Amino acid sequence: MFTSEFQEKEKKEISLPGKKANEVKELLQVIYPTVERKPPDEIKEENCHYLLSLAHEYQMAAITQRCEDFIVKIMKESFSVKKDPDIIAELVFAQTYNLKKLKQASIELAQSLALPELKKQKGYDEIHSENLQEIMERMITRLQKFDFLCFLRFVLFFVVGNSPMADKESNGEWQDFTQPWKFSDVVLVVESEKLHVHRAVLAFRSPVFEKMFTSEFQEKEEKEISLPGKKANEVKELLQVIYPTVERKPPELIKEENCHYLLSLAHEYQMAVIVDRCEDFIIKVMKTRKPNKDVIAEVVFSQTYDLKKLKRASIELAQNLTLEDLKNDQVVYDQIE
């Protein structure tokens, strides 16, 4: 522009239409580093994407590279502490600007997601076919490496009527997971208790545990995994739902006393089937009773966990209440969206 025959060659003012002033300023701060401000401080999560976009447009290869390296670093750090970054959005961004390192890093992280989780990611439909194929092939390879043979043995053992979780001497009552059993291969440490469980069954039931056991998380090879902030008795009851026995039918395990915290745990660990069962149970119990102030609490609960069926059922029952009944608990009432 300044050395060829463009009209801007001799101009003192050059317009950059379509650009944002604050973004161009930040690019200039990267171009013109000062002693007081070191260059690495200038590239941050809030600006790395638009700085890269501008640097790419103006063919600033060094700045493009620095921004790409920064995005890869932040994405991997977020993933390592179990904060799911927008992996697919980053992959689409990498496709747009032909960023090979970011593309490769995004694909490597995407392969550790469960397929339903992958499809929920923003930009899934924009993944180039060759990149989607690579992700799927890596997923298959990862699952092949994960030993589900032990899980199949567990299922067969259950099908023939000899559930490893039932204590025959106690008439089919549950074990409490505090002792090792035939197929247990990992320990969950909850509060001060150690709960012996089966790694593959947890992975089969939960995309969160699957990722934990098959990706590069430190828990992949550990024999003891801590679940901070959880209550031992609540986790035990969730495990009893996960590991059903012939002697005790699963529906009996979900009760009024536990349905809400079981749903909360199942939601956190992405156990969709158990979330659905708990939601159906809550609706069933709610409909057997005369509508009262608890209906509003269920509306708020359904908002928290995005439970569409419970939300609809709660609202239908709430319309039978008086305004005074609705506002009986003002704190809960004020939480209605």
Automatic annotation (TrEMBL):
It comes from Porites evermanni. It comes from the Eukaryota. Residues 184-243 form the BTB domain. The lineage of its organism: Eukaryota, Metazoa, Cnidaria, Anthozoa, Hexacorallia. Pfam families: BTB (PF00651). This is BTB domain-containing protein. Coiled coil: none annotated.
